Amino acid sequence: MTRRHMDDDSSEESGGDGRSATVCFLCRQRKTKCDRTLPSCGFCLKAKVDCQYVPKPNKRGLRAGYVSQLENRLEHLESEIESLKREETSRPSSQALQSPLSTVHAAPAGDTPASFSPPQRPAVWTAPTPAKRQRLNPETDAAVRDLMTLPNAYLYTLAETWFKENQPWCPILSHEHIMDAAASLPTPVEYIEDIELRAVLALELSYSTQAICLGYHGRRRLSQYLRSQVLTEALSDASLGSVRALVIVGLMDYGADNIASTFSLLSVCRRTCEHLGLFKKLLSQIQGESPSQVGPPPVNTSGGGHAHMISVAWATLGLDAVSTLGVSWRDASAALVDHLSSIAYVSTPYLRDSYRAHVHLAAIGLQPVHQFLYERSQMQVQTVDENTLIKCDEMYQNLMSYVHGQPRTRYTILENGLVDFDPNLVHTETLVYATTVMIYQGLVDFHATTPDVPLQRCVKVCNENMVTLVRSISDADAELNTPLLAHFFFVAARFKLVMCMQLSEPTDIAFDTIMHTINMCARRWGFARRLDIVLRGAVVELNGGPPVPPDFWDLKRSHLDISEELKQWSSLHKGLHLDGSTSGPYSWLSRK
């Protein structure tokens, strides 16, 4: 290596090429001193090898100043978010609504350049802010215009619709608070201040028939605009109102077949409850009570107080436990969940209150099932032994105690002529029956020579319990219900089809009844429409048609484990299986 080359290397080092300025390659390996002033260092000369200077490796860890750069970028993003929130919440004051000339004169002299001509708008609108740059989005501008065209009475009606259709099975909002927020909206409505009202309107605009005046594209556009506002505020402000709003958006996303988003939002809700200290309060409260008395408190409709905060925490735990039942991963607050698991078989639900009983089942009664399904999913070979059957029987008896202890699902005619229906009774029964299938479906042997307990219980649940329940509810109540209901019926319908495949039998009336209910759920929720398409595709395969994904027929895979795969399949094949609900979900097969 010549001195000239070494000088070039030195100049390159100063230019930032990353070459070592002190040691050659071999000396670095030997960890010896290297004299770079020679054409070849002493060690390389003795070893009779070429002296090579190579780029030095990157050092481990973060480079100097990297954390400071990230902090500066974070501060910049936070300032932009704050300016966005201020812009969204700003209102033209009476002074800003005066003539443009008076507005300019009222501004400080230093704020207006000498060459600035009188503006055509109030001065508060002239500064280019990030919020204004965002408003350059045509879809956003169109959504704001749609919002401004809606009368206040119309928005008030949409808010009231939530309490008629959704509050009975998701009583997390205060009627007085929401209706006061709706009544205090300005005219015209350019921005909705209350985050809970925003979330309610986002859901109702997307799914309620009351919002069809905007058209299909318009209602979806405005709904997504309000949804994005809810997420922006809720993710930057940890509060009880943010938790309620995110729960509503999570239900909205589940119905729109965006289950992954629901998982993420409910995870945020859990962590927000933990951040607010709700889980710690809940844990200390239930540890001080008798295990048999642990459970959610009565729903407090006043909208305040410690009891209401605890109720929201219980509702979040229950909804999260139900929506993730069957996934092969666990993501929960360990201390609280472990305690709830330890009292699952000794805690007694308050069966006189159907909602409290359902939340008790979801948050406490399902904990052993979560643990069992998780442990089975981690096994390389899922064997069935006597201990497994004993554990399953213990879970089954505990689940059925919720059904046996509550009143039967029924319609009651009130004095004013209205029909009273309790959706929480349906939720509890459906959840128990679907959970029973989830427990036993991976243990079933369709070709066993002796009576198979897992098969018998799954058949009884699908052919008797589930069908009796479905026949006790109307089509309208199946439609105006939680989107999670469709997944419970899908579990039973899928098992029926797998049994037909294994035993080479045709579908029966029980399967048709369950399919009809899923079809009714699909009138409102896009997610249920996808399930309907997948099941019809499976029926086509049973009749010699093209196949659905193979995992559909593998009962060791849960309905949530195969959800995304079925979603992709249905998006490619839905045109082949769509059929009008008036003629049945798959009656067209008989016309081939």
Element layout with pairings:
Elements: H1 3-15, H2 25-30, H3 42-47, H4 66-89, H5 100-106, H6 130-134, H7 138-149, H8 152-165, H9 175-183, H10 195-207, H11 215-234, H12 240-255, H13 259-275, H14 278-287, H15 306-323, H16 334-342, H17 354-365, H18 367-377, H19 386-405, E1 411-413, E2 419-421, H20 423-441, H21 453-470, H22 475-479, H23 484-503, H24 509-521, H25 526-542, H26 563-577
Antiparallel strand pairs: 1-2
Write the H/E string, N to C: HHHHHHHHHHHHHHHHHHHEEHHHHHHH
Say how many strands there are.
2
**Largest beta-sheet details:** 2 strands, antiparallel
Structural class by secondary-structure content: mainly alpha
Q: What is the helix tally?
A: 26
Proportion of beta-strand residues: under 5%
Q: Write out the strand line-up for the largest beta sheet, numbering strands in chain order.
A: 1-2
Q: Explain this structure to me?
A:
- By secondary structure, this protein is mainly alpha-helical.
- Among the domains are: 45 residues, no CATH class; 137 residues, no CATH class.
- Helix content is 59%, strand content 1%.
- It has a two-stranded antiparallel ribbon with strand order 1-2.
Question: What are its keywords?
Answer:
single chain, 592 residues, mainly alpha, two-stranded antiparallel ribbon, disordered N terminus, disordered C terminus
